UniProtKB/TrEMBL annotation:
Main location: membrane
Family: Belongs to the ABC transporter superfamily.
Source species: Streptomyces fumanus
Signal peptide positions (record): none
PANTHER family in the cross-refs: DIPEPTIDE TRANSPORT ATP-BINDING PROTEIN DPPD, OLIGOPEPTIDE TRANSPORT ATP-BINDING PROTEIN APPD
Location of this chain's protein in the cell: Cell membrane
Keyword Cell membrane: yes
Any one biological process term the GO annotation gives: peptide transport
Membrane topology: Peripheral membrane protein
The protein's name: Peptide ABC transporter ATP-binding protein
Length: 353
């Protein structure tokens, strides 16, 4: 059984509850080597019609958070604490039967690799029609008509004919469009997109991102968009949450976080991004070191072993005291607000160009 503990109320300073409201979420996995604390004390909200971009390196807890929202963890090895409320419905304590009703209906997911979501044995049209028939009680004929309609909406030419094709008869970009059609077929309130364009070339990626934005306008869904690419976030999201080692370290609107980032880890991410106008022969500046083991995460600030600014904080607070994320526009770092502004303006921004 999944171990579940409900948290009483919301932690202070997480703002008003959104359409999706996550409070003090912790996810731990039992492994042969010990307990992995994959997500630790995470709180955030997403409003209807808005896109939250979650960014961070591999292992930062982005994907685990979203699989938890969808209730897709192995119940025998996972312990979940905290609260996930979607449109008033608590998901952490929901039964598998209740989650089955929600998945593909109220909440849908677009994966990085369409081949993991599309079966090679059934036509694309059938695979789009099935969740619609299951959740709405529509007939086969109605389901098929809806599948053709959705393929048309996501820009597949000649959808009535192409609905009869199998996934291998589609190009990579078309398969991604088909998966988006499948995710949106029941008009979900929340769409979770996990690196949905990483495997695609740049032109197709831009087309898919534009398509998602158009469909969000039409369907009014809330979107949680996971990526390691701040450029994609800048294009897609309204709000950003930066994650490191299972926790959020910075959040704000896209404009706030990208124009005036306040956390040393966000500075590192920005600094390690290739830029169109940069000297292509110059090496990128990756963040030194690697993300910590979540079996035994560092004490205090989890970023402290990699942080170039910890000597600016008085005493050994960075090593002993865990910085907390405050309300709304906030970063979890012991530097003062003045230090964050000055360091960014004088030391980081000139490097970013
Ligand atoms: Fe760096 Fe200290 Fe801020 Fe952590 S709390 S990001 S170690 S300055």
């Amino acid at each position: 059984m999944t171990t579940v503990t409900k948290t009483e109320g919301a932690p202070a300073g997480t703002g008003p509850e959104g359409f999706l409201s996550v409070r003090d979420l912790s996810v731990r996995f039992a492994t042969e080597d010990g307990v992995v604390r994959a997500v630790d004390g995470l709180s955030f909200d997403v409003e209807r019609g808005r896109t939250l971009g979650i960014v961070g390196e591999s292992g930062s807890g982005k994907s685990v958070t979203n699989l938890t929202i969808l209730g897709l963890h192995n119940p025998r090895t996972t312990t979940i604490d905290g609260e996930i409320v979607l449109d008033g419905k608590e998901l952490v304590t929901a039964t598998e039967k209740e989650m089955e009703k929600l998945r593909g209906n109220k909440v849908a997911m677009i994966f990085q690799d369409p081949l993991t979501a599309l079966s090679p044995y059934y036509t694309v049209g059938r695979q789009i029609a099935e969740p619609f028939m299951k959740h709405t009680g529509a007939s086969k004929k109605e389901g098929w008509a809806r599948a053709v309609e959705m393929l048309g909406k996501v820009g597949i030419p000649n959808p009535a004919q192409r609905a009869k094709d199998y996934p291998h008869q589609f190009s990579g970009g078309m398969r991604q469009r088909a998966m988006i059609a499948m995710a949106l077929v029941c008009d979900p309130d929340l769409l979770i997109a996990d690196e949905p364009t990483t495997a695609l070339d740049v032109t197709v990626q831009a087309q898919i991102l534009d398509l998602l934005k158009d469909l969000q306008q039409e369907f009014g869904s809330a979107i949680v968009f996971i990526t390691h690419d701040l450029g994609v976030i800048a294009d897609m999201a309204d709000d950003i949450m930066v994650m490191y080692a299972g926790s959020a370290v910075e959040r704000g609107t896209v404009d706030e976080v990208l124009r005036a980032p306040r956390h040393p880890y966000t500075w590192g991410l920005l600094n390690s991004m290739p830029r169109l106008d940069s000297d292509l022969s110059a090496p990128l500046a990756p963040i030194p070191g690697s993300p910590p083991s979540l079996l035994s995460p560092p004490s205090g600030c989890r970023f402290h072993p990699r942080c170039a600014f910890r000597d600016r904080v008085a005493g050994d607070r960075c090593v002993t005291e865990r910085p907390l994320l405050g309300p709304d526009r906030s970063s979890a770092c012991h530097l003062t607000a003045e230090q964050k502004r000055t360091i960014f303006a004088e030391e980081i921004k000139p490097r970013l160009g």
